[in-house]
Design brief:
Elements lengths: L2 H15 L33 E3 L7 H6 L19 H9 L3 H13 L9 H34 L2 E6 L4 E6 L8 E5 L7 E7 L5 E5 L1 H4 L4 E5 L19 E4 L11 E4 L5 E4 L4 E2 L4 E3 L3 E8 L5 H4 L10 H33 L19 H15 L6 H19 L14 E2 L13 E4 L6 E12 L2 E3 L2 H9 L30 E3 L9 H4 L10 H4 L4 E3 L5 H4 L5 H7 L19 H15 L4 E3 L10 H5 L6 H13 L21 H5 L1 H4 L56 E3 L3 H12 L2 E6 L3 E6 L3 E11 L7 E7 L6 E7 L1 H4 L11 H23 L3 E10 L1 H15 L5 H12 L4 E12 L3 H10 L3 E5 L4 H10 L8 E5 L4 H18 L18 H4 L4 E6 H7 L5 H9 L3 E5 L3 H15 L3 E5 L5 H6 L2 E5 L6 H4 L3 E3 L4 H39 L12 H11 L2 H9 L5 H6 L5 H4 L6 H26 L6 H23 L5 H24 L12 H5 L3 H27 L4 H9 ...
Parallel strand pairs: 15-29, 15-33, 29-32, 30-31, 31-32, 33-34, 34-35
Antiparallel strand pairs: 1-8, 2-3, 2-4, 4-13, 5-11, 5-13, 6-7, 6-12, 8-9, 9-10, 14-35, 16-17, 16-28, 18-19, 20-21, 22-23, 23-24, 24-25, 25-26, 26-27, 27-28, 36-37, 37-38
Length: about 1400
């Protein structure tokens, strides 16, 4: 297919597929390739049929042309225009705006001779100027995209040529589906391709997806099963298979398909086999694959949604007022038409100016009035502000520039600042009423620190580790590795830092050199040189506070009792190891291997460690390994393997039959050859002098420093390894296991090696990994245990899920079953204690399977893996068949600390009248604890908990709580009617009762049902804060959508992970936090910040400014247009409503287009009614925007009335002055124009709260430009508008004192009422904004005192209202009887939380539900 046809086909598919796209989103994006990522919609876009991929080779020529040849090539085009279609297409898009269509209609209308009001060319001028400005802007933007597209399309990659029988250099744009591509280290992947070969001996390819989703940690991709055993690269000429996969879609986390060999044998394909366009090859010398998706059909391009375009609330309000202006225009034109008809009908004879038609026919007064209606439409067209929309766009660009230039948003550690991805909703930041926030990574740091664990029913509190965390203070420096030393009394606990693991961070394609993009590979030096490389980044989740775990003394003592003799099956005289010892062993093995952590080598950026490759190397020292890795990283050859040999036992079977025969082929793991003496040394090595005395045994007996077990020659120590985890939870557990000398040593697709203290290195055959998902809420690994040779399933996940999957019966008999029940009960108690401390909890469990059970499960799992349709459902069913009858091993508690400044920010936002909801997937106790810690909930808040098992119970409990709240707070404005437009005032926090609502995920499911929605919203309206725990991503978005649509309030959602994307997209404003969970949330957001604390300034300062500036600017535009147009309207009463203008048409057009256009734009960009410092210190000022006080309907009509008054003064003062004189029409109009200019500009001066030299320069420049134009136009225009002309009029007036008197008098009389009102308002009844403005003028000391008094007065008012009703809040018991349910609601006050010397008392609502 030719290239134009391919392009047309692709765009037609996009047009059809985008029919249901949200109106707020642009159909396609402008961003370059590497600026994309994240889902652009909540559901993936799927085509209806599968895709067949055939190799682009000679033997498959006919089949290739039938299938792969019909797909689009790899050329991308993000531009909208070409040289040929730019003008027509741009005009077509611009005329989608109603305002432009309106003015186009006026231009056409003015060409009709009967209704012509101006010269034809003059009427076209405003429209042409506006269209030209926007066309230039669109053209420059499109040209920038064209250059980026050209650069990307001309990148070079290695493609197999069927003619030359070798790989040749070819541009990205020439790559097609079915091509074989070879890539080297650090090359960017040009198209979505299935991985067929990797030089890694284990068939692994490491990729960095930072260009796609922002995640900098490495991810593994696996060669297709059956190809990883090959020692040499796949020969394309011998490739005889075909691929069938799903049609192109935008789901980055899914790929379904199979590879079918010539013998009809199928091998399942998943996302682990797919290399995505835009990712970068890392730590792999060379890879080869076949292209399945190219160009605009790649997942990267389908996710490239670009900047988000929404209509702000203020813009919708302005559009409504434009319609009112249209109605006003129609009324004025009808008045003119009616007046003209009546005026003509008063003449008994035909007046001399009423010229007959050529046939002698005279137009009747009625028809003349009809014609005059359209003439008046043309004359008064300026009433509709055509320049308003252009000015709004310019102002918003200026506002975004100043927001992004604010240094307070800069995060030095991350080297990032705020990103404004939505270009036209800045003013909505100043009107937020509801804020929905994620917890993990948004309110917290997402730095997971191992705190406590429970094993076999025993709790280990890790007091020494807790003391370390309390004294830990990371220094704020660019290199976090230098911040590893704790301070204070425990400074002697410091240990030598692990070598830093760093990698070069590539920016967008446009900012890096071409040799990086085409595969030039480079390595960082070791030592200090590595830390000096610009833009280097530390491995994810590897700060010292996360990696340095101090073991619990008691658990370490038990751990030291584990010896190899306990697990030696040959000696039958030894008793079975104690059950607790087995539990401890399995617990730490599960921590070490139940994950997807990538192990990286020391001193070399992210180089994978594989035991199978190291064993074959005759290397004695760690330095030799490092040198070898460095040599490999800079070499660009296609050698078949990284090492000389490979163990046969590590091969992956290539057929299902061989997979089932795995058990017969596998050799039992040999007993541990070398015994390691018992030790209880601290993992921090001999340098740890702060450990308890009993743990400080002679470390020299072990013979290995820093807890390293010297099991393999040249093997790097566990301390020096770096762990690349996809989530901080995984990293925390692996580091905790390492602290107990159960160190993850290496990971390959076939095996995992753990260095386990006295047992030595244990190599587990890795059979399957069932990854975590939000439905199962757990992950599992299936391994063959090296000691028992049994198939073991290790599972970790949420306690609410794992507890339900535990085995009821035990094969060990009643005594063992009873013991497991006791362990389960004690572990549940420990989990509850962990959650109350705000820790994130996970349960660890295992299951031992027989070979028969595993073979049966594997057969069904293979069918699920090789299916395309319903694969997710089948895989879920397969996982659930495996993950049952589990044995509970223990639980962990991980601490996620609050971000800096979160408490202060939430407190400020509460004072600003913003209701904050926390939506999290964590446990109820954990969520409540964090809510108290971040001051979302206060100690004296009355807490209500909704946790029910049925809809009826939920309804009755909500009704009970609502009735009680209504007794204490009966006049909440939200309860009036949920169907009305509720501009949510901060009612509950100003009333006597402060209530908080906690609701769990299951109960939230009931509350979101249509029959309970109103009751749920009525309940939340009384609450100061709401915490939704155990909420799924879908429930988060449904909550935001419910509040936004039913209460009709302005909502903001903030999150940092992929699970927050749907919530962010549903809200009026979505805020993404660029944290440690990648950039999916950022890519889907309207604004992106690096820390939650930046949200307070973004809303309270910039939000307030943007809303106030734009509101006043829009009102000013309406004012000046109405004021000026009315001058023409009043003149019609004195010219027989003939449509005549007393001003030259050029002056009339330029008055709004040039002379008065710049000042309001500068005002909209630079106006500051209150300083940033005052706005931050007085968050209450934000409520001005919440209530839309700057732009209310009443404000709009008062502005129009003021404009009518000023226009009357501006017209009749000169009229009375020159009445009875013999001046001509333009001489009369000149004082009107000049006075109108001064009135309109000085009106802006009165309204401005901060006048800078820029304001004055623009205003003076506007006045001078007017006089310059009038003088020049009057000097050269002799016969511009016969019979009248403006020749020498301004020159004569400037010599006439009466002219100056008229201008001064008219300006003073017109502006006097507004000036007096502003003076009285500032003196007698100042608004909070004006009072705050007064503080800015005070000296620093007086200002501080005034602000202190303001805050104290506010606190006193709040306390008075709070405690006036406090006497009725007592402990009480309410019993409700019902035929179906009985509730016992008990209010209990407990003082259970102590923070230092401060005792925090919380009120809890306990609900007991029983069925009759």
């Amino acid at each position: 297919m030719t290239e134009p046809l391919q392009w047309a086909r692709n765009h037609w598919q996009r047009l059809i597929g985008g029919a249901n796209r949200d109106d707020d989103e642009r159909p396609y994006s402008y961003s370059s390739l590497l600026a994309c990522g994240g889902k652009s919609s909540q559901t993936p876009r799927l085509a209806g049929k599968h895709r067949v991929v055939v190799p682009h080779l000679q033997p498959f020529k006919d089949e290739y042309e039938k299938f792969s040849g019909t797909y689009v090539n790899n050329r991308i085009r993000t531009t909208k225009y070409t040289l040929l279609n730019f003008v027509p297409r741009n005009l077509f898009e611009q005329f989608h705006r109603v305002a432009n269509l309106y003015f186009l209609f006026l231009v056409v209308l003015n060409w009709v001779p009967l209704v012509e009001a101006f010269q034809k060319e003059i009427t076209m001028l405003p429209l042409v100027v506006v269209l030209t400005i926007i066309a230039i802007k669109d053209g420059l933007e499109d040209y920038r995209k064209y250059k980026i597209d050209k650069q990307i399309n001309n990148l070079v990659t290695k493609v197999y040529s069927r003619k030359e029988k070798k790989y040749v250099d070819r541009c990205w744009k020439d790559v097609t589906v079915g091509d074989f591509i070879r890539l080297s280290c650090n090359e960017v992947i040009p198209a979505d391709m299935v991985l067929l070969f990797s030089t890694d001996p284990d068939g692994i390819c490491h990729i960095e997806t930072s260009g796609l989703d922002g995640e900098s940690n490495l991810k593994q991709r696996q060669v297709v099963r059956g190809y990883s055993e090959q020692d040499s690269e796949v020969d394309p000429e011998k490739f005889s298979s075909r691929i069938e996969c799903e049609s192109p879609n935008n789901d980055l986390n899914r790929f379904r398909g199979f590879l079918e060999h010539s013998n009809k044998e199928r091998v399942g394909l998943s996302k682990e086999n797919l290399l995505l366009r835009g990712c970068t090859i890392r730590n792999t010398e060379s890879v080869m694959g076949i292209v399945v998706y190219a160009g605009h059909e790649t997942k990267a391009m389908l996710n490239n949604s670009g900047p988000r375009y929404k209509r702000s609330k203020l813009e919708r309000r302005a559009n409504t007022d434009v319609l009112w202006c249209v109605l006003l225009l129609v009324i004025m034109c009808l008045t003119g038409a009616l007046g003209h008809g009546i005026w003509l009908s008063r003449y008994e004879n035909i007046p001399f100016f009423n010229i007959p038609e050529p046939d002698g026919h005279v137009i009747s007064p009625v028809l003349a009035g009809f014609y005059m209606f359209w003439t008046m439409i043309i004359l008064l067209q300026v009433l509709i502000p055509i320049s308003l929309y252009v000015s709004i766009e310019i102002v918003k660009l200026g506002q975004i520039y100043f927001i992004q230039s604010d240094v307070d948003f800069y995060n030095e550690k991350m080297d990032s600042t705020i990103q404004c991805r939505a270009l036209n909703i800045t003013e909505d930041l100043g009107q937020i009423q509801y804020l929905f926030s994620d917890k993990t990574g948004t309110l917290t740091e997402n730095k997971m620190v191992f705190r406590r664990c429970s094993v076999a029913g025993f709790d280990y509190c890790h007091e020494e580790n807790a003391k370390r965390l309390e004294s830990y203070q990371e220094t704020a420096s660019e290199d976090e590795d230098s911040a590893g030393t704790p301070h204070g009394s425990l400074s002697n606990m410091a240990k030598p830092r692990a070598p830093s693991c760093r990698t070069v961070h590539n920016g967008p394609l446009g900012s890096v050199s071409s040799n990086h993009l085409t595969g030039s590979c480079f390595a960082l030096g070791s030592g200090e040189g590595a830390s000096e490389v610009p833009h280097s980044r530390q491995a994810a989740f590897s700060s010292p506070i996360e990696t340095d775990v101090v073991p619990d003394t008691r658990l370490l003592g038990k751990f030291s009792q584990i010896t190899s003799q306990l697990f030696t099956p040959l000696d039958e005289t030894l008793p079975d190891p104690p059950l607790e010892t087995l539990y401890i062993t399995d617990f730490f093995i599960a921590l070490a291997i139940c994950n997807t952590v990538v192990v990286s080598a020391p001193n070399q950026p992210r180089q994978k460690i594989g035991l199978s490759s190291l064993r074959g190397m005759p290397i004695k020292s760690l330095e030799e390994i490092k040198n070898l890795f460095q040599r490999l990283s800079v070499r660009r050859s296609s050698s078949p393997s990284l090492a000389g040999g490979k163990e046969p036992s590590s091969e992956v079977p290539n057929t299902f039959v061989s997979k089932l025969s795995l058990f017969s082929r596998m050799k039992p793991a040999s007993p541990v050859e070398e015994e390691v003496s018992q030790t209880s040394e601290s993992p921090q090595g001999s340098g740890n002098s702060a450990c308890p005395a009993e743990t400080e045994k002679e470390n020299s007996d072990v013979g290995v420093p820093d807890g390293e077990v010297e099991s393999l020659p040249g093997q790097p120590s566990a301390r020096s390894l770096c762990y690349e985890a996809e989530s901080p939870d995984e990293a925390a557990l692996v580091y905790a296991a390492r602290a107990y000398q159960c160190a993850l040593q290496s990971r390959t697709p076939e095996q995992v090696t753990v260095d386990f203290a006295a047992l030595g290195p244990l190599t587990f055959q890795l059979l399957h990994i069932l990854p975590f998902d939000s439905v199962r809420k757990r992950m599992s690994v299936v391994v063959r245990h090296p000691l028992s040779n049994q198939v073991v399933v290790y599972t970790k996940g949420a306690d609410s899920v794992i507890m339900e999957l535990l085995s009821v019966a035990s094969p060990g008999g009643p005594s063992l079953e009873k013991q497991q029940m006791i362990i389960r009960e004690k572990t549940q108690q420990h989990l509850d204690d962990y959650a109350k401390q705000g820790l994130r909890t996970l349960c660890i469990a295992k299951r031992v399977m027989s070979d028969t059970e595993y073979a049966e499960w594997l057969r069904n799992h293979f069918l699920a893996e090789t299916s395309i349709d319903n694969r997710e459902e089948l895989l879920l069913e397969s996982a659930m068949r495996l993950e049952n009858k589990l044995t509970l091993l223990g639980a962990t508690g991980i601490e996620d600390r609050l971000q800096e400044g979160v408490s202060e920010s939430i407190e400020a936002l509460h004072k600003a009248g913003i209701k904050i909801w926390m939506l999290t997937g964590d446990k109820q106790e954990t969520a409540v604890n964090i809510a108290y810690a971040c001051k979302l909930l206060e100690p004296d808040d009355k807490l209500f908990i909704l946790n029910t098992e049925s809809k009826n119970a939920c309804e009755m409990l909500m009704d009970t709580i609502l009735k009680e709240l209504q007794k204490k707070d009966p006049v909440s404005p939200e309860q009036a009617s949920l169907s009305e437009d509720l501009h949510q005032p901060p009612g509950p926090q100003d009333s006597g009762l402060r209530a908080g609502l906690i609701i769990t995920g299951k109960t939230l499911e009931f509350a979101l049902q249509e029959s309970l929605q109103k009751q749920f919203l009525a309940l939340t309206a009384h609450c100061h804060a709401v915490v939704c725990c155990r909420a799924t991503p879908l429930q988060k978005s449904e909550v935001v959508k419910l509040v936004r649509s039913c209460l009709r309030v302005m909502t903001l959602a903030v999150g940092d992970g992929a699970n927050d994307v749907s919530m962010i997209q549903v809200a009026d404003i979505g805020i993404g936090i660029s944290g440690q969970e990648g950039m999916q949330a950022v890519m889907a957001s309207d604004f992106a910040i690096s820390q939650f604390k930046h949200l307070s300034k973004l809303l309270l300062v910039h939000g307030h400014w943007c809303y106030t500036r734009l509101s006043n600017m829009i009102l000013y535009f309406f004012y000046k247009n109405v004021a000026y147009v009315n001058l023409l309207f009043w003149y019609q009463f004195f010219c027989g409503f003939s449509g005549t203008s007393m001003t030259d048409y050029w002056v009339l057009i330029f008055f709004n287009l040039l002379f008065t256009s710049a000042p309001p734009v500068i005002y909209g960009v630079l106006e500051k009614d209150v300083s940033a410092e005052t706005l931050v210190q007085l968050p209450e000022l934000y409520r001005n925007g919440q209530k839309s006080e700057a732009y209310l309907p009443l404000t709009f009509w008062i502005t129009l009335l003021d404009a009518f008054y000023q226009s009357l003064v501006c017209f009749f003062v000169p009229y009375c002055t020159y009445q009875g004189s013999d001046i001509d029409i333009f001489t009369f109009g000149n004082p009107l124009n000049t006075a109108a200019l001064f009135i309109i500009l000085l009106h802006l001066v009165i309204e401005s709260k901060s006048l800078t030299w820029i304001h004055m320069l623009v205003i003076v420049g506007s006045i001078l430009s007017y006089f310059f134009f009038a003088l020049a136009f009057g000097a050269v225009c002799v016969t511009c508008n016969p019979p009248s002309n403006p020749y020498w009029i301004m020159q004569e007036h400037m010599l006439d004192p009466v002219f100056y008197l008229v201008c001064v008098l008219t300006t003073c009389v017109a502006l006097l009422p507004r000036f007096i009102y502003r003076v009285l308002q500032g003196s007698l009844f100042p608004s909070p904004i004006l009072r705050a403005k007064h503080f800015d003028r005070l000296p620093a000391k007086e200002r501080t005192e005034a602000l202190k008094k303001w805050r104290e007065a506010g606190k006193m008012d709040q306390l008075t209202s709070k405690y006036s009703d406090h006497s009725v809040v007592k402990s009480e018991r309410i019993t409700i009887s019902d035929p179906s349910a009985v509730f016992a609601v008990r209010l209990a006050t407990s003082c259970a939380i102590e923070q230092g010397n401060l005792t925090v008392c919380e009120t809890a609502l306990d609900s007991d539900y029983s069925e009759n």
